[in-house]
């Protein structure tokens, strides 16, 4: 839902501690301000890490999202249901006391994963998907799959029986394949044969980066093939890696692609298609691990993701389709209920912090130091804004 509010002049800034605000009062200093009311979004692809890093970043995702699919690529990786349950408890302990955030756990697929582990995962009630990393494809993927159609086939067949989605990091790791072509080659060499062999397997192609991935997802059967899309792949192209010098905080995997690919992804996401849904792939690293001779891949976008998605949909003239992308398509694909709580986005400029400081060091967020135009409000502030809307409507 899109509304226009009238806010007071700066010298009479709205204070959330007040009981009511007369939204109908206007003056020569006032101007309409756009507001969006959305069903609370979920993040269907999130890295929370562990230990001190988990404590630092978990509250940022919990602030805006109701649920999140948690990636299992820790050291050691989360390969069993027992490990997933233990990791979930660590996440819950890292959340603010008043948080309702729900982590949805995943298993890390290896060549030795057993079909029985899939049964245990489904019956646990806390594991919702299995993640496949081609060995060596990205951060902590060294234990990933080397033989998907051989050693892993019995597991994949059990996943069909249990209706357990397979989440795919869609890149080949052959050193002879150009890094910018790894996604396309993976689609042709792995995903197409996989879908043909197991058409009832639910597959999510994670963090898509190319028009080839868009076409592939659109060609599949709705409800069985979908994709998550990150803010960075909607907003940045590969020039962002090199403008003004090497930009390590824009480096992620899969790597950013050409502008034509970015445009194709924007068109697909803002079309209203149910096949695409929000997955930030927020992947924090300490500053010193990004700004070094061999920097880590990953962009920490949790504090800004909702604002950036709104920016993309607004620029595409598709704000009416934002809620489905952020809040409906994901749970519908996973067969989970949609959230009932709300989040509000106000068209109000705010500056992204230059860095976030913690006892172990600093983390640089995406768009650090930049000004964004959509500001999320949750919890008590969202309720106050809801009262503003109702008072304005009643007086109107």
TrEMBL record:
Its EC number is 3.5.2.3. It is an enzyme of class 3 (hydrolase). GO terms for cellular component: chloroplast. Coiled coil: none annotated. Signal peptide: none annotated. The keyword Hydrolase applies. The keyword Zinc applies. Pathway: Pyrimidine metabolism; UMP biosynthesis via de novo pathway; (S)-dihydroorotate from bicarbonate: step 3/3. One of its GO terms (molecular function) is dihydroorotase activity. Keywords: Hydrolase, Metal-binding, Pyrimidine biosynthesis, Zinc. Gene3D superfamilies: Metal-dependent hydrolases. One of its GO terms (biological process) is 'de novo' pyrimidine nucleobase biosynthetic process. Residues 43-354 form the Amidohydrolase-related domain. It catalyses: (S)-dihydroorotate + H2O = N-carbamoyl-L-aspartate + H(+). Pfam families: Amidohydro_1 (PF01979). Belongs to the metallo-dependent hydrolases superfamily. DHOase family. Class II DHOase subfamily. NCBIfam families: pyrC_dimer. This is Dihydroorotase, mitochondrial. It comes from Gossypium barbadense (Sea Island cotton).
